[in-house]
Amino acid sequence: MNILKAHDSLLLDLDGTVWEGGQPLRCVVDVINSCGVPAVYVTNNASRSPEAVASMLSEIGLLADPEHIVTSAQASLVLMASEIPAGSKVLVIGAESFRTLTREAGYQVVDSAEDKPAAVVQGMDKAIGWKELSEAAYAINNGAKFFATNLDTSLPTERGFAVGNGALVGAVAASTGVEPISAGKPEPAMFTYAAKKVGSKKPLAVGDRLDTDIAGGNAAAMDTFHVLTGVSGELELIEAPVAQRPNFIGAGFHELSLPVAVAKPGAQGDFRARCDGYDIVLQGGNEKSTSIQALRTVLEVAWAMPEPPRYIQPRSEFAEKAVAAWR
């Protein structure tokens, strides 16, 4: 049985998984539109409204509507509601769409610590600067509770990895000594909420970051599929702690069609791996062997070790070629 047929929905990360800088990644549009199961887009990016995300997905050829978008901005407001009553003043550090969502949730959105807000909630906005971060610090130092949409420290773009919301949140936390309550991945709430939206009993969480997408899906007791098109590469996978290890690993979206047994860690592509003290020796392979096959072969051994391996030692021409392609 292939991976898609083994699941009844896809819970998809966006940046680094579905698109990069708004441009679709390889095979994504074709796979999603033809997979035969509902797709829900679960994103830590709080700078866009669900309507805006749905519009962007439609522009690249995906069939999507706001009801199939779950953002960390939405999740943060649900989380905040458990501690901050409706009608309270809230200082929003983030995009205008986030401010609108906060008003729609029944809060008074303010712009200054002088307004004595009950809470500060911070989401991604590329226009955020020293003034906005300092205003948040003033409010938190005056007793406001601190919430964050997500703690992603980097954001994939077409030029590489840019500063993410978590890095900006970290500046405020460092200045105030107060750690935020985060609503986004890797917390499981976004995943369970997304699955309920489509009545899914066997969802598959797909993402490119081990510490958010995969850890969050695992925390929600869901199967997880890691794509090597974004943040976390092969070397990070090899060193991943148990909570961040995916069930399946693929070079990209096209490998969602692989049989379940193939996409899991295990010897394949004529590669062989064994533990040698603190290292892993990788041998074998052939002209048709791929770097992802070498990776899955190594992962089976690495994840059985009590500590991550010190080195991966390629001992054949094909092993050397595969390992050289890892990042």
Span between termini: 30 Å
Give helix % range.
25-40%
**Count of separate DSSP helical elements:** 12
- Our Rg estimate from Cα atoms comes to 21 Å
Strand content: 15-25%
Strand order of the largest sheet: 5-4-1-13-14-15
Number of strands: 18
Coarse shape = globular
The major β-sheet equals:
6 strands, parallel
Q: What structural category do the secondary elements indicate? A: alpha/beta
Could you state the order of secondary-structure elements as H and E?
EEEHEHEHEHEEHEEEHEHEHEHEHEEHEH
Mean pLDDT: 95
Residue ranges: pLDDT <50 for 5 or more in a row?
A: none
Notable characteristics:
hydrolase, HAD-like_sf, 327 residues, five-stranded parallel sheet, alpha/beta, 12 helices, six-stranded parallel sheet, HAD_sf, HAD hydrolase, IA, variant 1 family protein, 33% helix
Q: Your description of this structure?
A:
Helix content is 33%, strand content 21%. Strands 5-4-1-13-14-15 form a six-stranded parallel beta sheet, with helices on both faces. A five-stranded parallel beta sheet has the order 7-6-8-9-12, with helices on both faces. It is an alpha/beta fold and 327 residues long. The mean pLDDT is 95. The longest helix has 12 residues, at 130-141. The two termini are 30 Å apart.
